Amino acid sequence: MLIANQDWKLNMNVRSEFGSVTEVGFLRWWILTGRHLFCEVAEHSVRALTSNEVNHGVELSDGRRVPIHDANIYLQIPVHQDLDKSIEEVRAYLRQAKQRQHVNPDYEARYPVFTKPVLTALEKTYRAWILRKSHPEMPLAEIAVEAGLAARADNTDTANKSANASAASRALNQATLLIEWVGKGIFPVTSKSQELRAADMAERQWKKLHSSDFKDARYRSSRHKRSNADLTEQAAVHGLDLDAVR
Fold it and tell me: Which domain of life is it from (predicted)?
């Protein structure tokens, strides 16, 4: 099977593309790297059109002008309008446009999410895994309490202790699955019953990442990424301290 032969290559690609979150902090990593991996490919970043473009169309690299009837929507946003109101109105237009627009597979995210994750559950699973790694001698029932998995924090009661230990065991098994499959570019896989479908997606993922069309689309998209300096300046304007987020 193709995926069996290519697992190690995809694993190395995933490690290389994701880099180290811990070295730069999550917020900076997400802005510079993460969002470009999990978000759909965009050839252009958000920008304001000139009046000439609005009236005569957008100029292509070869000098030709094309009318504005492409896969973008063009909005007039009042600068002095309440920001939250503007954002909500833009979202409403985007939702409507996406419902009408056919999705080109070349513009899918590099790493599409396998299933819709429950973030609170993932966080508790992560806590349990960290506790097991940092305190291997800690009893399962205690891990459940510390990780927020326990329905009742009282481990003196035998029934509670058994239930808590089972909850921690399930979370650790789930963490093992998550780690195994994220190395293949598939996230999140949370149960054994999903592995067959995950393997199929991993094989398609490997083929997609190595297709020339997808590489071309990623190259076009990469030209529009913000530089580290640009994002730092942008964060400063909005009063964000990227270095404070870890």
Answer: Bacteria
